[in-house]
Amino acid sequence: MTDKIILSQMSFYGYHGALPEENKIGQRFLVDAELEADLYAAGASDSLEQTINYAEVYGLVRDIVEGPVFKLIEAVAERIAEELLNTYSQAASCRIRVIKPDPPIAGHYESVAVEIERKRSTSYLGLGSNIDDREGFLKKALEALNTTKNTKVSRCSSIYETDPYGPIEQNNFLNMAVQIETLLPPEALLDEIRRIEQGLMRKRDVHWGPRTIDLDILLFDHYKINTEKLSLPHPEIKRRAFVLKPLADIAPHVVVPGINRSVIELWQGLNDKEGVRIWRKNNGEGKFGLFEN
Fold first, then answer.
1. Residue 240: CB partners within 8 Å, gap ≥ 6?
2. Mean pLDDT of 26-45
3. Bridge partners, residue 166, by sequence
4. Which residue ranges does the record assign to the 7,8-dihydro-6-hydroxymethylpterin-pyrophosphokinase domain (predicted)?
5. How far apart, in whole angstroms, are the C-alpha atoms of residue 4 and residue 92?
6. Which residues pair with 10 in a beta bridge?
7. In the CATH hierarchy, which fold is given to the domain comprising 121-289?
8. For the chain, is the Cβ count within 10 Å smaller at the N or the C terminus?
9. Residue 119 bears catalytic tag
10. What's the CA gap between 123 and 178, in Å, rounded?
11. CA distance 136 to 130
């Protein structure tokens, strides 16, 4: 997509900065905003309702720059991007540049600025529990995900009861997969997932051991990441029946990056499909379509 709404060199007076004089005296800020969106319908209909109202965009940016004080223009840019993407669902991404034309530092330069780009992303997560109230832990994890800042649960698989994986003798799991829409980058999403696990008393004492809740990022857009903190796609995705079966419920035709095969192809080609049994079907009723009696 190449269609964009662009507002350039919006000028405001604010009090952002790390120095006391910036907070007291204030200074001029310039902001550029680009929102990527499909503008065909607006162009064909000549209707304001079919597009993003740039006068509204200006007002939202003004309220942030002229509002509460931030130490860093990085934080100003982040707040603008977040507000615009949360306000305009038709915007797929945005690029924000915040400029200080006259920063209070010595030297010869035209200005200082930060530029960020943020977008909506789709991620697929695997959930599992095999301690105490397994269904209750899944439900609490879903609710926590759905109330995480800039993140919403959009689809849920059915729940499957699965045999435990690995050498540890333990109870059967309940497993499921969910699709989320998020403005968070992958590493920030992982941090939020770990926070949810800690809140639900997840302990990591034993590898492949029992757990109240297990949350794994399986896929994140078409990202391929391999760091000490995070690997995407999940490195075990193609080998685990308890992952592929629920994931095939909600994303059968999504192609796994690096493997270049769809989820349903990986499921159909899996040699060992045993130990995965439907436990509760998602029938679309109740919250998340799962938790009605």
1. 165
2. 96
3. none
4. 207-218
5. 10
6. 31
7. Alpha-Beta Plaits (3.30.70)
8. C
9. no
10. 8
11. 11
Query: Would you kindly state where each structural domain of the chain is located, as residue ranges?
Result: 4-119, 121-289
Instruction: State the amino acid at position 197 in one-letter form.
Output: E
Domain 4-119: which CATH number of 3.40.50.720, 1.10.3660.10, 3.20.20.70, 3.30.1130.10: 3.30.1130.10
Query: Which residue type is seen at 84?
Result: L
- 100, 140, 152, 287: which one is catalytic? 100
Token duo for residue 266: 């990986």
263 in Cβ contact with 144 (< 8 Å): no
CA dihedral 62, 66, 71, 75 (to 10 degrees): -20
Tens-digit pLDDT profile for residues 184-207: 999 999 999 999 999 987 665 555
Strands ordered across the beta sheet of 27-37: 4-14, 27-37, 91-100, 112-119
